[in-house]
Amino acid sequence: MMKLTNLSFPLITILRATQGVFAALILILSAFVANWYNTTTPSPSPSQVNFLLFGAVWSMLSLAAIELLPRFLTRIPKPYLTLPLDILNALFYLAGFAALAAFLQGLLFCRGDVCHAAQADVAFGAFSFAVWTATAVLSGKEALRVRRTGGIGSGAAQGPLAGTGAMPGQRGMKEAV
């Protein structure tokens, strides 16, 4: 079985770049729709639009954390850091695009640039959900592989404490007497 970190085809890098591009597009589209509501109508922007706006900002922060946290938290395997963020982002986009799609379905009319932007927002939200789900699956597979081997990825953590849950410098479960 191939490790995700050593693929000759940088699949995870391409998926992360796609997530960043989609987050930027959703941020732009959601901001456009929210601004239209806030400046043109007497009502505030819909919470569904605001939630997708939040999801895009959260994705950008998550991508920064996915890149930076493994550099500072070297004792924790990378899949254990990325998997929760991948799952959380996938859930945010699922909720966001589904809620905005239901909101648009309930409108009496939807036309013009703001409507097209909101529809594109739904589409990119659905695409983002798919991409974050794909990276969650890949991170989950890598986390299971790391857990099975007991290492941080390269086999460097193999030894008497591998698989015991003990950190270096601590006694393993088998050693505690």
3D architecture notes:
With 177 residues, the protein is mostly helical. The protein has one domain (11-149). Helices cover 68% and strands 0% of the residues. The chain has 4 helices and no strands. The protein has helices at residues 11-40, 47-72, 78-105, 113-149. Helix 1 packs antiparallel against helix 2 (47-72) and helix 3 runs antiparallel to helix 4 (113-149). It is elongated, with a radius of gyration of 21 Å. The two termini are 37 Å apart. Mean pLDDT is 85; it is low at 153-167 and 171-177. Pfam families: MARVEL. Keywords: Membrane, Transmembrane, Transmembrane helix. This is Membrane-associating domain-containing protein. It is found in: Membrane. The chain crosses the membrane at residues 20-37, 49-69, 90-108, 120-138.
- Mean of all residue-level pLDDT scores: 85
Oligomer state of the chains in this structure:
single chain
Please give the alpha-carbon distance between the first and last residues.
Answer: 37 Å
Strand residues, percent: under 5%
Number of domains as seen in the coordinates: 1
What is the overall shape?
A: elongated
